[in-house]
Write a structure and sequence with these properties.
Number of helices: 1
Largest sheet: 5 strands, mixed
Number of domains: 1
Structural class: mainly beta
CATH topology: Ubiquitin-like (UB roll)
Shape: globular
CATH architecture: Roll
Order of helices and strands: EEHEEE
Number of strands: 5
Length: about 70
């Protein structure tokens, strides 16, 4: 199944979740936010929110610095 993650097509297994999609980009356990088709997905729902063909996911990570 093809989904668009941060503007790039990615092949994920059918039934993949938001949590699995995030894991393809970052191992970070904190400081990550996700939007699925322009709607923010609460972290507690990542594991139960399944993806469909051509879904659009934006994964944002917080960066510290000055």
């Amino acid at each position: 199944m093809i989904v668009i993650i941060n503007g790039s097509p990615r092949d994920l297994p059918a039934g993949a979740t938001v949590a699995q999609a995030v894991e393809t980009l970052t191992p970070a356990a904190a400081g990550v936010a996700v939007a699925l088709n322009d709607e923010v997905v609460r972290r507690g729902l990542w594991g139960s929110t399944t993806l469909g063909e051509n879904d659009r996911i934006e994964v944002l990570t917080a960066v510290q610095g000055g």
